[in-house]
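task queued by scheduler; priority normal; single chain, no ligands, no partner chains; default sampling; output format set to structure tokens
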Amino acid sequence: MNRRRYVVVFAGVASILVVWKIASNVIDAEIILPSPERTVAEVFTVVSSPRFFASVLATTRRGIAGFLVSAGLGIVLGIAAGLSRTIGNGLRPSIVVIQSTPVMAVILLALIWFRTETVPVFVAFLMTFPIVFGNVRDGIGTVDPHLIEMARVYRVSRTRTLLSVYVPSVAPFFLAGMRTALALTWKVVIAAEILSQPRYGIGSEMNEARIFLITARVFAWTIVAISLAAVGDATMYAVSRAVIGRRAAISRKRLAEIDRG
């Protein structure tokens, strides 16, 4: 099954490259659409440039900073909204406004409000916050009310109830939200860098290549951005698998204890 999946993935990538190559030959203008081999050559040029690691690290730092702030606030307010309908209703208008505001509008306002280095972090936080918030809130809503009632009857502390009842139910929703939010983070951070033009950043490098009409370099930095997002997604996927696997192991252990009892 795994081998078949890899074959399908390889066939999909090969199809993209073939279509890309044909299109570049038909257009026959590198400034419009460079060939795959020209783009690959430019990737090696970009990677070997002295600004490469500084730009990638700068974008990574901004993305992680915005993502962590979004995750922290999303968890706290998501739990509060899930436990209290009043808080949920009070936060709903703000969430709707954030979700409805175009990313470019947020970037332009951030350019007015903040320093260049802060703009991508703020935009990443604001655009991904509703995702984490909504998933945590929805996860709280799926908690079995019978378990909550049982915890009250047996006078289980709030802390233990939160850790033993709410967290296991919210974890899958939270991890799914984190994975989606992280994927969006790189897009909005790089878009913000393109407009805010910090000294180092993938977005800054892409915009500089655009100004000088080096389309192959724009494609090369795009491949770097995609690779960065892929690493982030693979990391979140591994974390999700580990958490879900641990939950399954704990469940099996509890069932075994019940059977022995």
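post-processing summary
- Residues 215-260 form the longest helix (46 residues).
- The chain has a mean pLDDT of 87.
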